[in-house]
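Human: If only I could read backbone structure tokens as easily as an amino acid sequence. Underneath my words sits a plain record pairing an amino acid chain with its backbone structure tokens. Take your time, and here it is.
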Amino acid sequence: MPLNEAELEGFRQKLSCNFEQIDHVFEDCMVEASAYLSEQGIEDYLEGASLICMIGRGVEPVLDYLEEMPTVAHKLDEAALSLVSQTVWKISRSPNGNSIPAFLHTLPEASRRLGSFDLLERYIEVVLDFMERTSTSIHGNQNATIPSPSLIDLLERMPGLLHDLSLHGLSNWIDYGLRYYQDHPERQRDYFCLQSADSRAILQRERHGTLYADHDRKLDLSMRALWDREEMFVPYSSAFDELRKPMPYYDDRGMRVPDVYDDHNG
């Protein structure tokens, strides 16, 4: 639904960012945001974009956020707006600021494949942990830190990895690479670029089970066809909760189902 001039001007005043390029796409972004987000969601959206503008990395991260986040927040939860902007801020405070565009570019596919805000949180934890473990301090001086040699390599391959692996499988694949190559930058890059034989072998090992993301549309269509119901399926990962081992359940967000089903008894 088109916005009138007063509405558009009001939104623009709430975005603290003066790059001229934003004005070329702002109306389209706000039309989409107004269709997908609540009033509070729009406030959080503009606040998040303003925060990203403050990091001093130019217009590209701001444009990426403005263009991608309404859809991500609509699919997962509006809490993703603040989560992503705060994550960008954290990355910008590290020596890995040049990886921010690559991180933002992973979010559309991550939201599609992960399918829930909880798993997006876990995914971001995995990315930030990787960043910290591969960024090395000089002689233990935290103020003199060398950027991760392989963070951008990993992020550039993340859409394909999320297509092949569950979040637990992705975490296992990353942990293997860090266990053996954390102190070897060139071999680390080979691993996370999928150039080494062991990288491909471990990836194949972690590919198992039936991924929810490969069948979410079929489940949705089945619910509609058989029972005329539109249930919101919200995947979770049991791998990160070894004690409770959650089973499928309902909550206020919808029907919770595992992000991957493994075959039983062969």
Strands lie at 136-138, 141-146, 210-211, 233-236, 249-251, 254-258, 260-261.
